[in-house]
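Margin note from the TA: students keep mixing up input and output lines. Inputs are the sequences; the output is the structure of the whole complex. Example:
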Amino acid sequence: MSLISAQDLTKVYTLGELEVEALKSVSFTVEPSSFVSFVGPSGSGKTTLLNLIGCLDRPTSGSLMVAGADISSLSRREAADFRGKNLGFIFQDFNLMPVLTVYENVEYPLLVVQNVAAAERKERILSLLDTVDMLDQKDKYPDQISGGQKQRVAIARALVTNASLVLADEPTANLDSKTAFMVIDIMHKMKDELGVTFIFSTHDRKIVREVETIYTLTDGMITGKAAGKGGRHV
Amino acid sequence: MFKLVKIAARNLLRYKRRTLLTSSLIAVGVTFVLVFVSSSSAFKNLMIGQITDSMLGHIQVHKQGYMASIDSLPLTLNLSPENMKKLEKAINSLPGIETFSPRIKFAGMFSNFMETTNIRINGVYPDKETAVAPLLPGRVKEGEKVIKKGEIFIPELLAKGMKVKLGDTIVIIATNRDGSVNGKQFRVGAVIESVTGPGGRDGYMHIDDARELLRMEQMEISEVAIRLSDFDKLHSVSAGLTSALSEETNKAGKPIFDVRTWEDLSPFYNVAQMIDIMTFFIKLMLIAIVLISVMNVMIMAIFERIREIGTMAAIGTQPGKILFLFLIEGFFLGVFGTIVGIVFTSLATYTINVVGISFNFGRQVGLILSPRLEMGQIFLISGIVILVSVLAALHPAFKASRMEPINALRHV
């Protein structure tokens, strides 16, 4: 079964009296354990698409199945619950909680969203921090670490709940290319090790090449599908 | 839950200066209110104590109808020995009454053989009277503390006006209930200080002298003053006494006795009530201060943290938990402000007590204000402040919990 299956997905925004069609009848599927990127210029609809998949917004029409659930018409609470249990998020600006340490940031989704026993919680956090090579920084606060380190913490945070799908909106936009490649590398490793699917939106061509499947979006429509060199990792 | 509490606490610590400012505002409010409440209640209790302990007593019992014409001190509305027996029985059956003092009250003429003026006199049993009004001996400016037969205690204003000194012989002339006039010589046993309130400028003599002067065939009592063992039980004891006496009716079926608390007897009760009303409004002002400052700081905090809220929501935090987080922050602001306020108040009341602020009220001078922090008031004020802090955070917190994560995340 596909992890994501979108059928005729349409999203219309109303800006004053103007109706903007951000997505026009988009259909695609994503298989489990994929490394996918949506690319396209600003306004092409890639962020809108990510928001729909991420259960942060609802489609105007069309159907959207994620991890076996129809998420096109979830209530607020149901959507929050779904996001917590199934999805991980990585943001352009890292969005770590400034009042929490590295360790606590990774711990947050487990505490607030899911009830995992303390011992297991600790083990999972430490092992993820080890994987992203942040174990020695675990007691630092976000303002004490670099951008690349922050994004690595964010990756650990996105994966700690055993999410099957991680959505990353422009995850490397605020990083220099060396760091960006490193971050992408870690994500790739996690994909291979844990079988997690990563979906990016980006217009960074360098990064795009690292993924397996590239969908090109233009004016709210998928206008191309290509394989990236990231495919060779499989 | 515990984690949310920790996050809330850290969020407050993150903006140390703002948190400090807001909670000091609350603390100052709490301090002012608590100092005002404890000072005003100290003043109130002091004055009530002065009034009840220097002459009024806590509760008075008269014959029904006596109060209506109390200004003329009618001798026709006295309690007969049979009435007194019933009253004493009722008093002795009730717990909470420490002691009582029967009085004969009458108006008469006071003559120093050259001039004559009018005087109001209480005929009392000296030991019973001082038990009910323990401040009475303290009012003696010169002379003996205890009333003896053949002696009269006269108020100092009268002594001055009539140029009468301690030990002088004077004559009291009074009309008895049948209208015949009688006079008797007395020696001035003491000159007493006047006090504010009804009866504060009355003279005193032994009850047997009063009876003889008024040519009473049997002892008839105008007024019974009662002292309670616990002043706070005033209303329950008064109600108990009223109901115990309600069965005692005259031939017409009307009750014989009339039970009044000091509140009905002294005009100071209105002042006391005014103090309570002022306290109430001061508390309202405190609520306004807390409401405005907490609401303000919470609105600011939420505005600054929109993206954080968006992140929390995106990760899957339920709206209820976001609401809870901000309510906790409001709660902490209130608690912190209250604690600091109580500390400030303790220091302030301690200072007032050490310095010893004295004041005059009416004829009484050099009364010392000694505010005391009452646990009840501390709990009440703390409860109000903390509750209002949470309420003030409610609206901003609700807005935060209803934010759409995509809009919040996009916020710069």
